[in-house]
Structure formats: C-alpha cells, structure tokens
Write a structure and sequence with these properties.
The chain has 398 residues and is mostly helical. It folds into two domains: 124 residues, 434 Repressor (Amino-terminal Domain) (Orthogonal Bundle); 273 residues, Serine Threonine Protein Phosphatase 5, Tetratricopeptide repeat. It is 73% helix and 0% strand. Helix 1 crosses helix 3 and helix 18 runs antiparallel to helix 19. It is globular, with a radius of gyration of 21 Å.
Length: 398
C-alpha cells in the first residue's frame, strides 16, 4: 500500500483535534459536521470536502493550511520549484523603490506581450515555467512602470503581479499570494482602473474562500461588485461581474447556503448568455462553460454529489478551454464520483486531471485527498493506480 494515505487530511484533523483535547463528538458539534462524516474523514474512508476542512479549521481556530498540509515541501524541492519562490518574494518587495538603474527594461509593448504569455501559460498549467520567469519580469516591469509613468505600464505590472499570485496560490504559499495581491491593488490604483480593482477584490475573496472564511469572502465580492459600478459599461466589466457572481456562488455553496448559491449562479448565467465564451478577458475563462463547471462545483459543495455527477455527465468542455481549469474540473468530478461509490470512474477522472495539467494536479489538495479516499476504499489496486500515487509522492508530515 502506498504511503500517501497515511497522512491524509483526516489524520491531520485527528491530530489537531487531539492536540486541542477534543473528542470526535465535541469537534463534530463545534464544527457543525455530522459525527459520521467526521469519523469517516479521520479514517480516510471519504475525502474531506472544502466545507468540512473549513468548518474544522474554524472550530479549532487554526488556518486551513494547517489542515491541508501545504505546501508540499519535499515534492516542491524535488521538482526544483521551491528555489523559485524566494526570487518572486524579493521581486514583490521592491515595488516602491522606483526605477532600478541596473535594470534595462524592454519596450512597453514587449513587456505587455510577455505578461500576456505568462497568463496564458498559467492557464495552460505550465506552473514551473511561469515561476521561473515571473520574478525577472516583475523587476523589468517595476522599472518600466516607474520610468514611463503611464497607465499601460502600471497595467502590465499589475498583470505580472497577478501571475505571481497564481503561482503562489497553486503551489500552496498563501502568504506570498496575499503579498502579490496587495501589489496588484497598488498597481491598479496607479492605473486608475476600476475593472482591475474589481478583479483584485475577486482574487482576494478567493483567498478567504480557501481559508474557509466565507463571510469575509462574501463581503469582498460585494465590494468588488460595487467597485465595478465605477467602470464604464463594457464587455470586460460584464465578464468580471459574472466571475464575481461565480465566486460568490461557490462561497455560498461551501457555507451550505443553497438559495444564495443558486441566485449567484443565475446572475452569472444571464451575463454569460450576453458575453459568450470570453476565455481571454482577464484570463478568467468566463462564459457558459465556466458557469456550467461552477454549477457542478456548487452541487458538490452542497453535498449533492449524485446531482453533481449527473450535471458533469451532461457537461461538454469547449475546445480551447484552459487546461488548468479543465484539470480542476476533473478533480472536482473525481471527488463527487468517489462519494457516489463509482471508484473506477473517480480514478479515471484523476488520470484526466493529470493529463490536462500535470504540474497543477500534482499539488492539488482535492486530487491528493481523493486518491487517499480511493486507496482506502480498494483492497486490490491496479498497477496504474499505484504508479499514480508514486507520482504524487508522499504527503507531508505535520
């Protein structure tokens, strides 16, 4: 049996629970999680849903990262990704020092193209490539923006900060992700761009979503929608508005507020009918496909796993949809299939998630937790199942 299941999220919840001198029943009551669910999660029989993770973290007053066990330090080191984090942090730290006389930036249009390529590569799942390039580009973009003092220069720098956020968030560095967001907001204010301001609040809300702090996340969504009202009417504004509603829908789903979740999904669906597929508008992949994918996620967050699987079976991903989003979608469906007891199809969806974006999939907590649940549920494992676990690597000890 592969070692991945020996330190799954459930074991960390149990360890933290004991450290807080709580029985399973006491934690169940504090977190408002059924004791049968908590028991199975701790045993690794079923994967811990984001709702359960957030509820247990809040009940024990620890951050979600303590429960999830990220970052995966050993794997990041083996993949030579950990050495790329420090330069990003250093590049983010010199935002207000003005132009660096030792940096010779390229022309603004070249830097803009590079920033757009970073966004495209993140959506393509090329995390290591982006992580290796973003720090140097931020240094160039910082000097260029301070030198030319134009709206376009600040927008390019804001885009580079957004890519730094994407890398940090996907690799499990929440403090670095928040720092990158603060820099994005700083650049957006200098560009006087209300749509980018709305984007900032959306991305910031996602950090609170990951932390299980849904009330604060919902307040940020409302602030984002309010900020967008200051922008001139445009397709770009509608796309970001729609994406904020999708974020709010998942937020409400994790809080088990079904009515609010469906209200926000309805708003997003109306906007998507107007905009059509808008995959490259701020690289949000907004459109009817993203609404459909989020609807499946919301059903899963509401513990309606059968309905989520049925919706996924009807779902068709459009050609050219970002590989990173496709991989995340397969991971979500794999979790729902595990809950419905369809183990073979669950594993096949994990395989599809890896095919779509292997670098992202390797560090995706839902994939690791679903794999651990599958491993606990099966006595005889096929060779490719075990090799998948070897590819993921052992989960970190906490």
């Amino acid at each position: 049996m592969h070692s991945l299941s020996h330190d799954h999220i459930g074991t960390r919840i149990a360890r933290l629970r004991r450290a807080h001198h709580l029985t399973q029943r006491e934690l169940s009551e504090l977190a408002n999680v059924p004791i049968s669910t908590l028991t199975k999660v701790e045993q690794g029989v079923i994967p811990a849903s984001p709702h359960v993770i957030g509820a247990c973290a809040r009940a024990m007053r620890v951050d979600v990262a303590s429960v999830q066990g990220q970052p995966y330090a050993d794997e990041l080191r083996a993949d030579e990704l950990d050495v790329l984090i420090r330069p990003i942090r250093e590049a983010l730290d010199v935002y207000d020092l003005g132009a660096d006389p030792e940096v010779q930036p390229r022309r603004p249009e070249e830097l803009h193209r590079e920033a757009e390529q970073l966004c495209a590569d993140v959506r393509g799942g090329e995390i290591k490539s982006v992580a290796s390039r973003v720090a140097g580009l931020i240094e160039e973009g910082t000097t260029a923006a301070h030198t030319v003092q134009t709206r376009e220069g600040w927008l390019t720098l804001a885009s580079l900060y957004r890519s730094a956020y994407d890398v940090a968030a996907k690799l499990g560095y929440p403090d670095l992700a928040q720092l990158a967001l603060a820099r994005l907001d700083w650049a957006a204010q200098r560009a006087s761009d209300a749509v980018l301001g709305g984007m900032y609040h959306y991305l910031r809300a996602l950090t609170y979503l990951r932390e299980g702090k849904y009330r604060t996340g919902s307040r940020l969504v409302r602030l984002g929608l309010s900020t967008l009202e200051a922008a001139a009417p445009s397709r770009e504004r509608r796309v970001v508005t729609g994406q904020l509603h999708l974020g709010a829908a998942v937020m409400a789903g994790r809080a088990h507020d079904a009515d609010q979740a469906h209200v926000h999904l309805g708003e997003a669906e109306q906007i998507a009918a107007e905009t059509g597929e808008a995959m490259q508008v701020h690289w949000l992949a907004f459109g009817p496909t993203n609404v459909g994918v989020h609807r499946i996620s919301v059903l899963a967050e509401l513990d309606q796993y059968g309905e989520a699987v049925e919706a996924a079976d009807r779902m068709r991903i459009v050609a050219g949809w970002p590989k990173s989003r496709t991989s995340h979608h397969y991971a979500e469906v794999a979790r729902s299939l595990l809950w419905t007891g369809d183990l073979d199809r669950s594993f096949q969806h994990l395989v599809e998630a890896r095919k779509a974006a292997p670098q992202q999939a390797k560090y995706h907590p839902t994939i690791r937790e679903t794999y651990a649940g599958l491993e606990a549920a099966r006595r005889r494992l096929p060779d490719n199942f075990l090799s998948y676990g070897s590819w993921l690597g052992p989960a970190p000890a906490r």
